[in-house]
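Chain A, query sequence.
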Amino acid sequence: MLSVIFVTFLIQKYTYSFFKIDAAAFQTKDWFYVEFMVVDLWLVTWTLLLN
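Chain A, predicted structure.
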């Protein structure tokens, strides 16, 4: 689970600059919120694929 969080964090960090999103303006709570949403979506998708 920690590896999923780490990988998605790194993907987001480098993808935001590609899309011209100012990730430097994100505070800690913003990163937690975005990461929670990504991991939550990943878990729901993974669960649906397994069924």
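The mean pLDDT is 90. The first helix runs from residue 2 to 18.
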